[in-house]
């Protein structure tokens, strides 16, 4: 028989073999035992985490001759037939190559037929996010209310591409990335059962390179077994995965810490001579310092380490390196990694970054000799002061420097030009104001036609309130709108030019917020009455009448005639 890859030979045949997904397998086992099987499931998660394997195990469990069971027996005819693919009632479909409406319509037409061999007809649709919108729509109603003998299991690595109408009709299970410890345990079991000799650290390197995927880990283990002679060693694992030996990383980190440029460049030269990719090395070195920072802050979280193994050299370097230095190292290496993506001379950027790291100044430690000397002097001075006090000498401390008063900031906001507005009010005429108001709507429409819609929106709560020959007062409801309009020179010029075209007269707009307008107008009316002597003698009755009218309707609706 032809050789089969490890991930095919050791594909899980029961839920207990699905590594690192206990939150999924436990739920499915309980549902099987209590016979609470849903009509549709959605399995989502990264590649190689057991989605399709769990779907086939579920198909065997519901059709097992010994059901209800938490695990398929893998001994009855139904389990064996589903395992070898000879039972036609369990249909596995690749949605990447069968993503059209016709394929889904064919499923919809055949769903109504009862299974021929086992109790349930199970459709396993892999990479379901590849279906077209039409195919999803064709599947929708069937997925919601299939016949009692049909179960749909959808598997995907990109659930965000699936319509919510499909997701809402399924029980969703999210498969997570498998931890390195679980991957190592599974690979150790497989290697032992297969009679393969290995080093424990070699499996750890492979597990971390797999990035949470069991299938990727077994594929790398398969390569390492083929590459090795009689035993899978750490060097074999490093060669297959393309990773850098931790010994080299320790050597480089030590050279950087000791600011030894020669040793650092020599270690880098040897690595590149072995064919290591500069970009991959930069990534490994960033992960190395990341793990060093995590080890310093949380040494018990060994599972969180991505790249390193806790050997004596690494622990010693972690004790000598300050966190501020690690932050700087990661920044320099990350910048070099970004620049290497867009150049044909990645090696140069890597060498420059190593030189820069070796020449980087270490931050001053809190326990430096200068600080210690200063603390000793302060302690000595305090003792002398205490002795003087004990001898009856009054010690007067210098008055503490008074903190400088912060300058009072002027209140922000738009201040209208009061003098100009009062000048307009003194010479304002009703004819000018009515002329501007009569063409105001046409002016706003012309602004919109000139592609100034955003500016013309500022005029929604604005209106002319006074006008004279050459200028008019424009009242805004809000300060910010007034400020934005008046500070836009092009906008005010456009208003003036359009009004001149429409009225034949030139009018310059003077903006003012509503609250300031009320104050200025009231002051103007009061001053005008005082100057004309209207507030004395026989006109006091008329003034009280005007005030009462103002309380009732407001000054905007009152017109005073001599």
Task: Please provide a written account of the structure.
The chain has a five-stranded parallel beta sheet, with helices on one face. Helix 5 (101-110) packs parallel to helix 6 (133-144). The chain is flat, with a radius of gyration of 41 Å. The relative contact order is 0.05. By secondary structure, it is an alpha/beta fold. 55% of the residues lie in helices and 9% in strands. It has four domains: 6-174, Rossmann fold, CATH 3.40.50.300; 180-241, Orthogonal Bundle (Helicase, Ruva Protein, domain 3); 246-358, Zinc Finger, Delta Prime, domain 3; 418-557, DnaA, N-terminal domain (GMP Synthetase, Chain A, domain 3). The protein contains 26 helices and ten strands. Mean pLDDT is 82; it is low at 405-411 and 534-541. The chain starts with 5 loop residues before the first helix and ends in a 9-residue tail after the last helix.
């Amino acid at each position: 028989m032809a050789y089969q890859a490890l991930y095919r030979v050791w594909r899980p045949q029961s839920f207990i073999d699905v590594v690192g997904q206990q939150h999924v397998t436990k739920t499915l086992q309980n549902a099987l035992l209590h016979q609470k099987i849903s009509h549709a499931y959605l399995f989502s998660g990264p590649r190689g985490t057991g989605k399709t394997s769990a779907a086939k195990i579920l198909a065997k469990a519901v059709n097992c001759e010994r059901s209800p069971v938490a695990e398929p027996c893998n001994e009855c005819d139904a389990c064996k037939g589903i395992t070898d693919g000879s039972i036609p009632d369990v249909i596995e479909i690749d949605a990447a190559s069968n993503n059209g409406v016709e394929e889904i319509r064919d499923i919809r037409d055949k769903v109504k037929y009862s299974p021929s061999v086992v109790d349930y007809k199970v459709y396993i649709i892999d990479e379901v996010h590849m279906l077209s919108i039409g195919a999803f729509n064709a599947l929708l109603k069937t997925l919601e209310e299939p016949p009692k003998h049909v179960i749909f299991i959808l598997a995907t690595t990109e659930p965000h591409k699936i319509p919510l109408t499909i997701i809402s009709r399924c029980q969703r299970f999210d498969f997570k990335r498998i931890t390195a410890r679980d991957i190592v345990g599974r690979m150790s079991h497989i290697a032992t059962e297969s009679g393969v000799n290995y080093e424990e650290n070699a499996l750890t390197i492979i597990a971390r390179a797999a990035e949470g995927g069991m299938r990727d880990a077994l594929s790398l283990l398969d390569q390492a077994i083929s590459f090795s002679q009689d035993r899978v060693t750490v060097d074999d694992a490093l060669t297959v995965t393309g990773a850098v030996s931790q010994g080299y990383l320790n050597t480089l980190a030590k050279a950087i810490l000791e600011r030894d440029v020669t040793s650092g460049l020599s270690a880098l030269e040897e690595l590149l001579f072995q064919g290591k990719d500069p970009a991959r090395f930069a990534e490994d070195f960033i992960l190395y310092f990341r793990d060093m920072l995590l080890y310093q802050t949380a040494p018990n979280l060994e599972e969180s380490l991505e790249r390193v193994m806790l050997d004596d050299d690494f622990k010693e370097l972690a004790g000598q390196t300050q966190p501020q230095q690690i932050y700087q190292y990661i920044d320099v290496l990350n910048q070099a990694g970004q620049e290497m993506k867009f150049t044909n001379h990645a090696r140069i950027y890597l060498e420059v970054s190593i030189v820069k790291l070796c020449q980087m100044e270490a931050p001053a430690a809190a326990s430096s000799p200068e600080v210690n000397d200063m603390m000793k002097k302060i302690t000595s001075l305090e003792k002398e002061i205490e002795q003087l006090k004990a001898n009856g000498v009054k010690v007067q401390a210098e008055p503490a420097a008074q903190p400088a008063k912060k300058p009072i900031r002027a209140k922000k906001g738009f201040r209208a030009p009061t003098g100009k507005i009062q000048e307009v009010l003194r010479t304002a005429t009703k004819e000018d104001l009515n002329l501007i108001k009569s063409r105001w709507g046409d002016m706003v429409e012309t602004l919109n036609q000139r592609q100034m819609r955003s500016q013309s929106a500022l005029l929604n709560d604005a209106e002319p309130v006074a006008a004279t020959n050459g200028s008019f007062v424009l009242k805004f409801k809000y300060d910010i709108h007034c400020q934005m309009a008046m500070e836009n020179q092009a906008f005010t010029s456009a208003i003036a030019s359009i009004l001149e075209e429409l009225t034949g007269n030139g009018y310059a707009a003077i903006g003012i917020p509503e609250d300031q307008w009320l104050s200025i107008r009231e002051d103007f009316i009061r001053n005008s009455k005082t100057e004309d002597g209207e507030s004395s003698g026989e006109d006091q009755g008329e003034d009280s009448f005007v005030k009462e009218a103002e309380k009732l309707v407001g000054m905007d609706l009152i017109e005073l005639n001599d």
